[in-house]
Amino acid sequence: MGRPYACTGDPPPRYEPLTVDTSAGATRRGRATSRWPFDPARFGFYYGWVVVVAGTLGMIASVPGQTAGVSVFTDHLTDSTGLTRLQLSIAYLIGTGSSGFLLPRGGRAIDRHGARVVAWSATMGLAGVLVGFSFVGPMNAVVGIVVLSVGFGFLRFTGQGLLTLSSRTMIAQWFDRRRGLVSSVAGTFMSFAFAASPVLLLALIDLGGFRWAWRLLAVVLAVAVGSMIVLLYRNTPESCGLVIDGGLADPDDDRPVIVGTDEDLTREAAIRDVRFWAIVAPIAALSATSTALTFHIVDFGAEIGLTDDEIVRIFLPIALVSVPVTLVGGWLVDIVSPLLIAAAMSVAQLVMYFAVGRLDTPAFAVVAIVAWGVSQGCFGPLTSAALPRLFGRRHLGSIAGLQMSALVIGSAVGPALFALVKSIAGSYQAALWISMAVPALGLVLGAAAHRSGPRGRDVSAAS
């Protein structure tokens, strides 16, 4: 059955064949590497379940490179370097934006070298960056912005970017029929860990100071997380002599290890597919706006007449709404088109951006919290299961890397945009209206993809 191609009037994409060494010796060596230090095929159950646990722990380990992990150290950075909060924000913007532009290369590295190699390298890099940050001292404004921009760039590239991307991609490679549900369960644990991380990191800082906390995290990453990745991470079931979703491959088969099918889209073909942008638009918008609101939450609350305690209380109910939505969304993405989930996320964001500026009114507060929770709940299934469902597994790292790039760049631009609008208009309300443009565009793109003509089956059905 033919593949759907959503850009009406364009010729079907040319699929890039996978280039592999077809010699039996090369195939055996590749499988031997995947079976070190133990053979996953010898387990009495499907090794994909181990991959889920290990990949989830890997994503949680990226916390020091995420906004939640950086935010608790910002005051210590301004005090130790002498930079103002604005100067620190500029460095954060430059570093985060730069890392976003580098992430597509990281995605291609996952396709070429595998998730285990990339995740281990990212973990070692993240540990090294944390050690470097622990030695920062007084600097003038120009030097400080340059140094911290480079530091934030590596911090975000290794933590928020590569470690998260490689772990998430690895989980997606091991499941087909239950990919959405499995990825959403992993995302749920990740969300709870991220919510708890500021409290735990603050406790570490109180215990031994911010420099000691960063160095301790670096040791844990290099020793514990690095060892776990080497021991438990595996790139694909095929490389371990297994069949996706369970079962053993023919042990005497000396043919090269091939992931996915020849119908799987390349990164270039995915870029030309309107469905890719219909998925990316709402999650990039949420990444930008939720990061901006979180970054400016105290000032935003003061603008609408809420105290610090009152405004920060919204995050717990948002999490309580997002968790069941994530699980339901993960179940749905396995049985309905991901475009429907992307459309639901876009609509929820439009409602959220309208209502969140009126949080001082109880009725609007409820609407804003529910809409924000629904948007956040759709985020996980669309970043983990939607891409392999629509575009296949062969070039998943490259395609997911481009998606992650959009998210990271959005998280860099959002806080700066809100700050700029506040400085010009004197209020964040205009920034919320501007933010509506991207999810609205996502709805238009989703409708265009839906009207593009007869649709074939998803790639995952044939993988």
Tell me what you see in this structure:
This protein has 463 residues and is an all-alpha fold. The chain is 70% helix and 0% strand. The longest helix has 33 residues, at 141-173. It is globular, with a radius of gyration of 22 Å. It starts with 23 loop residues before the first helix and ends in a 13-residue tail after the last helix.
In short:
With 463 residues, the protein is mainly α.
Summarize the helices and strands and which ones pair or pack:
Blueprint (H helix, E strand, L loop, with lengths): L23 H11 L13 H13 L6 H5 L2 H8 L3 H29 L1 H19 L7 H33 L5 H30 L1 H23 L34 H5 L2 H22 L1 H7 L4 H5 L2 H18 L5 H18 L6 H23 L1 H6 L4 H30 L3 H7 L1 H14 L13
Low-confidence region ranges: 1-30, 453-457, 459-463
Question: How would you classify the quaternary structure?
Answer: single chain
Largest sheet: none
Protein structure class: mainly alpha
Number of helices: 20
Strand content: under 5%
User: Distance between termini?
Assistant: 13 Å
* Helix/strand order: HHHHHHHHHHHHHHHHHHHH
Work out the helicity level. over 70%
Shape: globular
What is the total tally of β strands?
Answer: 0
Mean pLDDT, as a whole number?
Answer: 83
Rg over CA atoms: 22 Å
